[in-house]
Design a protein that fits this description.
- The chain is mostly helical and 467 residues long.
- The protein has 3 domains: 4-110, Orthogonal Bundle (Arc Repressor Mutant, subunit A), CATH 1.10.10; 202-278; 291-467, no CATH class.
- 53% of the residues lie in helices and 6% in strands.
- The protein has 21 helices and 6 strands.
- The protein has a 4-stranded mixed β-sheet. The protein has a two-stranded antiparallel ribbon with strand order 5-6.
- β3 (89-95) and β4 (100-106) form a beta hairpin.
- α5 crosses α6.
- InterPro entries: DnaB/C_C (IPR006343), WHD_DnaB (IPR058660).
- Residues 10-270 form the Replicative helicase loading/DNA remodeling protein DnaB N-terminal winged helix domain.
- This is Replication initiation and membrane attachment protein.
- Residues 319-391 form the DnaB/C C-terminal domain.
Length: 467
């Protein structure tokens, strides 16, 4: 391990330069967003270097920097490396015969929008501050915005206000004379500055090994451009993905969407991480309906239907599956629960209704395709509460009954006998709610109804097989 005096000593000279001005919003970004990540030493070092960059350009010794900051050389070096790592500083060195000189080039911090939409820095800040403080800090950078789409643009153009120069004025100075000496070898004009950019050591992730794991039949290699490659390095570093894990996420994104971007890859990796670490299958399935979405919160049920609503709201999908099977739920069933809650954003209570809906009418089987179709339909309907889910299920039952009755009148017979398909139905889907029963083992024969044509065909075929 390199000790600090092998990299820099107090007599080493340094100079500071910055290609942009540090505005008030930049200072707020540095204080509120960068400081929690790099710490007070590095933050103070950046502000000190910035002050020196705006004063004179004389070379100084690092001893001078130690005197101003009252930091040890070890602390200065540590703070410098943090600034370099987070993209706020570039360091150049030059060895002369007897001395060593450093050039510190300050980089401008990201704008608030760039910072909070960056999938790297924003995650680190979230982990440092916690959810509540993170949201509070983020909201402090928001400004009112009015949509101008309903307004008429009446902005004046340059040619409407200013007149063209007279030919004699144009001839007095040509462009090369106007711009002469604007910038020289050792002097430059101030600009808005260049934004700091994070860079990761590529040795930390075997990109080629990942590429070799990707099937070219699924993902063409040309889609892995330089921008996506940089994002892959960052995501692999943040979420500690191995090449084979990253290859799977890339293939999942491309297979499901037909394209791959930094944003949809980030969402896929985040979903994978929650699934594998923070919210594994059992933990996710153990969640219950959020209190604000509970219709029976703090109330005693007075009817059988209210008892069932309270049951769906109080138990977790894991417990509901246990009640059905009497054993630990299978992993394949828990994955379907995770799909409903993660991919389709269904609440635990609504997921319970869906599970009960399908299990009761499908011979205690959770068909993957059926679960996916119904959950996506309910997600599009923005169903969040148990009563909403039960009402939608009843409505679909009614639609299907009307359709089936019409079909029965048209065809007349099933296998030579006029009858309705026999598929079991949950009690709470029956027309007369006063006769509902909480028990799921005493359901009567009826028809399970869905609005999609594919579900109708499936049910008709299931009914014929059940005879």
């Amino acid at each position: 391990m390199t000790v600090h005096f092998q990299e820099v000593v107090p007599v080493d000279a340094y100079s500071v330069q910055s290609k942009g001005f540090l505005h008030e919003i930049d200072q707020k970004v540095l204080t509120m967003l960068y400081q929690p990540l790099v710490g007070a030493f590095a933050y103070s070092l950046y502000m000190t270097l910035w002050c020196e960059a705006t004063m004179n350009q004389q070379k100084k010794k690092h001893q001078h920097l130690m005197n101003i900051t009252q930091f040890s050389l070890k602390d200065i070096l540590s703070g410098r490396k943090k600034l370099e790592a987070i993209g706020l500083l570039k360091t150049f060195t030059q060895d002369n015969e007897q001395t060593r000189e450093y050039l510190y080039e300050l980089q401008m911090p990201l704008s608030p929008k760039e910072f909070f939409t960056d999938g790297f820095l924003s995650i680190y800040l979230y982990n440092r501050l916690g959810q509540n403080r993170f949201i509070e800090v983020r909201d402090s950078f928001q400004v009112p915005f009015t949509d101008s789409s309903s307004y008429t643009d009446v902005t004046a153009s340059f040619s409407e206000v200013f007149t063209s120069l007279h030919p004699s004025e144009m001839a007095s100075k040509n462009f090369s004379e106007i711009t002469e000496n604007a910038e020289t070898r050792d002097r430059t004009l101030f600009g808005k500055g260049t934004r700091g950019k994070l860079s990761l050591i590529e040795d930390t992730f075997d990109f080629e090994a990942m590429v070799n794991q990707i099937s070219t039949f699924i993902v063409p290699k040309e889609v892995l451009n330089s921008q996506l490659k940089e994002a892959i390095y960052k995501l692999a570093y943040i979420y500690q993905l191995e090449p084979i894990d990253m290859s799977r996420q890339i293939q999942n994104v491309y297979y499901s969407t037909g394209e791959i971007s930094v944003e949809n890859l980030r969402r896929e990796v985040q979903k994978w991480y929650r699934f594998e670490h923070e919210e594994g299958l059992p933990v996710l399935a153990l969640r219950t309906q959020p209190i604000p979405l509970k219709a029976m919160q703090g109330m005693e049920p007075k009817t059988k239907e209210e008892e069932l609503i309270k049951y769906f709201e109080e138990v977790s999908p894991y417990r509901l599956l246990e009640d059905y099977s009497g054993t630990t739920p299978a992993e394949v069933d828990l994955k379907l629960v995770a799909y409903c809650m993660l991919d389709q954003n269904l609440t635990p209570g609504v997921t319970n209704v869906l599970l009960d809906y399908v299990l009761s009418g499908n011979d205690m089987k959770l068909a993957k395709g059926l679960i996916e179709r119904i959950s996506s339909h309910w997600a599009r309907k923005r169903i969040q509460t148990v009563p909403e889910a039960m009402a939608l299920a009843r409505e679909e039952k009614r639609k299907y009954k009307d359709w089936q009755d019409k079909k029965t009148k048209t065809t007349g017979y099933y296998n030579g006998k006029q009858q309705k398909p026999s598929v079991q139905l949950p009690d709470w889907l029956k027309q007369d709610s006063s006769e509902n029963s909480v028990s799921k083992n005493n359901t009567e024969s009826d028809t399970l109804y869905y609005d999609e044509e594919e579900n109708r065909k499936w049910l008709e075929s299931l009914a014929n097989k059940s005879k």
